[in-house]
Amino acid sequence: MAKSKKKDSPLAVLLSELRTLTERISTAEPGDDLRAVKKLRLGLEQTTAQLKNITNKLDPVLRPESIFDPSDPNTSGRVVALTLVAQTKHPLAKIPEFYGAGVYAIYYRGNFGPYAPLKGVDHPIYVGKADPDNQAAKDAVSQGTKLSRRLNEHARSIGKAVSTLDIDDFDCRCVFR
């Protein structure tokens, strides 16, 4: 009695065809037109990403949606942003002198037309940073008053636009480094 050969699944057949295509693509000449080559490269990158997604879906073990990697600049940026929005807002018109350097955000809550979309939302109009003069400074006192000076510079600049802006319509938040 002869054994019957097991028929390949449709996906296995497609994978075999994909391997053949991959071999053909790897030996094909891309041509000399740089724009066309770039378009080909981008198309291959998109196809590779699609294949990666298909591969992940075939895996019965779930993957995490995100991974916390403190060395990733995007991760540290998000941590700083979340820390910043967790801080109390302070009126920009009344910033006292204080020690420290860091990141700050300025918010608007007035009626000036161009800034009106920002009124009533917790979205800064400006985000900046104030670095200490001495980059090795580890505590707020040795960092000097860089952050408070920078915020007061913004307040003075806004104060000069008396025909359109009112300094009392601005708040700020800070995260110290």
From TrEMBL:
Q: Which UniProt keywords apply?
A: Endonuclease, Hydrolase, Nuclease
InterPro entries xref list: Restrct_endonuc_II_Eco29kI
Entry protein name: Eco29kI restriction endonuclease
**Which organism is the protein's source?**
Duganella phyllosphaerae
Which GO molecular function, any one, fits this protein according to its record? endonuclease activity
